[in-house]
Amino acid sequence: MATDKFIFDAKQKLSKKESIKKAIDFGIERETPKLKPDEKIKVVIEDKVNHVFVDVLRVKKGENKWV
Q: Which residues of 52-62 are buried (b: 16+ CB within 10 A; e: fewer)?
């Protein structure tokens, strides 16, 4: 599956929690139209010291591997 990399800039005056929620909503809005009948949305959040990675992915419905 090809990866579509997009950086969501949350430099606004939002809390960390609000920024993560906004990034998730953005990713879901972006990926939902691309969903195929055998796919689902998977959200992976990786919290680092200076930044947070939020990945919103389309995966096969049977796939249960967690990164």
A: eebebbeeeee
Taking only the tens place, the pLDDT of each residue in 35-65 is 999 999 999 999 888 788 888 989 998 766 6
- Written as six digits, the tokens of 6 are 């997009």
- Helix (H), strand (E), coil (C) string for the chain: CCCCCCCCCCCCCCCHHHHHHHHHHHHHHHHHHHCCCCEEEEEEEEECCCCEEEEEEEEECCCCCCC
Integer Cα distance of 48 and 51 in angstroms = 5
CA-CA-CA-CA torsion sign (37, 2, 23, 42): positive
